[in-house]
Design brief:
Elements: E1 2-5, E2 11-14, E3 16-21, H1 24-35, E4 43-49, E5 63-69, H2 95-110, H3 117-120, H4 141-159, E6 164-170, E7 173-179, H5 192-208, E8 214-219, H6 222-244, E9 247-249, H7 255-266, E10 271-276, E11 283-288, H8 290-295
Parallel strand pairs: 7-8
Antiparallel strand pairs: 1-2, 3-5, 4-5, 6-7, 9-11, 10-11
Helix pairs in contact: 4-5, 6-7
């Protein structure tokens, strides 16, 4: 917020705000609504950051503008050379004008005092970001699957690898698969790179559509191998649990890995499984039930 000289010689505060939006026009429009201005000529606009369109919606940057309301222009009383200056208003002023000014003054007394944004914020400058309406469409699942395929193909090319990308819709879920010997590099240790690619793909879908479908992604057959290995591991733990009793607490896992453990435990009688902890440190606990003790 900055101060400028008013028409009467005093200081008048003019609010200056910064707004971020997808385009410069949307940002200026939102700032004008915030300032209560309808005419573009009444504000000055400074573009802080130009919008940048990223690759398939990723890596983009919104526009940031700084908008300030212009001070009102002074009206100069011009008179021709030799013309006498206008007399000050006094008792000879027309009655209707005096009544109009008196009525306005009374109305101003009835109106509640309006504090500036600086006064409401305790003298601090407040940076305001107006909410821009969500202009994303509602995209059908087939189009979301196509966006997923195009993004993953571009990602494979960015890695400099050769691979085949497919994407289809199964039971309202987008099933994407990246296959090829070279795509193993996109898996990472314990699927860490694959998990990151999964989140990036979901973010891309969210930039294109308001309602996005659930996504299941597999790269280089890692998901199937991981599911098989976890099933064998869970079976071994269950055998140990049935012999020794008590409980077994597993290491923190992703939601998909925890589901595999729960599914294996559900197939064995006398074993219960439940999750504890907060993400990303959430883990599975296996325990024997009374049914297991009776069978023993």
């Amino acid at each position: 917020m900055r101060s400028a000289a008013g028409a009467g010689g005093g200081d008048v505060e003019y609010v200056e705000i910064e707004v971020k939006a997808r385009t410069v026009d949307l940002a200026v429009e939102a700032a004008m609504q915030e300032l209560g201005v309808t005419d573009r000529e009444e504000v000055s606009v400074q573009v802080i950051t130009e919008p940048v369109k990223g690759f398939l919606g990723m890596g983009g940057q919104d526009a940031v503008v700084r908008v300030k309301r212009r001070p009102p222009r002074r009206k100069r009383n011009r008179r021709r050379k030799g013309e006498p200056a206008a007399e000050s208003r006094g008792s000879n002023e027309p009655r209707n004008r005096r009544q109009e000014r008196t009525g306005n003054a009374k109305n101003d007394e009835k109106r509640p005092e309006r504090r500036s944004s600086r006064e409401r914020s305790g003298g601090r400058h407040v940076r305001t970001e107006s909410k821009v309406p969500d202009d994303r469409p509602t995209m059908p699942l087939e189009e979301q699957a196509e966006v997923t395929r195009e993004f993953l193909e571009g990602l494979v090319d960015a890695f400099g690898l050769e691979g085949l990308v497919t994407a289809r819709v199964e039971d309202d879920v987008i099933v994407a698969d990246v296959s090829g010997d070279q795509t193993e590099a996109m898996v990472g240790v314990r699927g860490s790179v694959r998990s990151a690619i999964h989140e990036l793909t979901r973010t891309v879908l969210q930039r294109y559509s308001q309602d996005t479908a659930r996504l299941r992604l597999d790269i280089a057959g890692y998901a199937e191998r991981r599911r098989t290995a976890l099933s064998i591991y869970a079976g071994q733990l269950i055998e140990q649990l049935m012999e020794e009793g008590g409980e077994i607490m597993l290491e923190p896992m992703s939601p998909a890995d925890r589901k595999v453990i729960h599914d294996v435990a559900a197939e064995h009688g006398g074993v219960a499984s439940y999750s504890e902890g907060e993400p990303p440190r959430r883990y599975v606990v296996l325990s024997r039930t009374d049914q297991g003790d009776e069978e023993e």
